[in-house]
């Protein structure tokens, strides 16, 4: 028997504008979490008051508060907050674990359907639905704006072989072993609203896209792949400027000879994969890679 017990861990900072929408969408799930640990990373707005209100109503919701670091710290700061929450749980008590942001609106059967699909395919290690955002921005009445009104919703265009970082749902054995394949589905019942679109949590669209280009350089991405993906992103909101920001971040890092990820074999893997995607297409390349790696992660192997 699979327990279907899942735990959410949410790092957050200054999320008062959208926190209630996320809280209400989780409280309204067809299958509730066994536990939800929200780590407040030093919020200075109304976030602590809102979280305290919900924690008083729902015994499975726990709020932890970290000292104010003075500003939102992406990347390492988010992971520090996440592991503050992870250290507060016993992972063996859960079948699944989710890193969940506090600026989302989830459909009511979201976690139920993710668990159904993971039970049907034991090779899936992490998954999500697809993220959509309001363009040119969320309406003033975003708390009441329905997902069914798609006139202003735009897909973030996350690849099928990725799970969305804002809602990264793990099989707990995969998280502890760091294995298994990633997947996301663009089904109506799994689409969720990202009220603050990917890359905009710190300052602006431009800052987020420049940061993306910098990260791609660091990870070993080839210039040809960067040009191709940036050209595609220019056709998506924010039009043109998003792709330009990615190119600026990437080629600025190249000109400055910024350091790259230290594992040479990993960077070679990234380049081989990207060239194969350009030559054969991403779906075929990903399927071939999955077939070659199918034996590399065993969900039944002891942690």
Structure description:
- Strand 2, helix 2 and strand 3 form a beta-alpha-beta unit.
- The radius of gyration is 19 Å and the shape is globular.
- The strands form two sheets. It has a seven-stranded mixed β-sheet with strand order 3-2-1-4-9-6-10, with helices on both faces. It has a four-stranded mixed β-sheet with strand order 5-11-7-8.
- It has 303 residues and is α/β, with parallel strands linked by helices.
- The two termini are 18 Å apart.
- It contains ten helices and eleven strands.
- It has two domains: 6-194, Spore Coat Polysaccharide Biosynthesis Protein SpsA, Chain A; 205-293, no CATH class.
- Helix 7 runs antiparallel to helix 8 and helix 9 crosses helix 10 (282-293).
How do you describe this structure in short?
This protein is an alpha/beta fold. It is 39% helix and 17% strand.
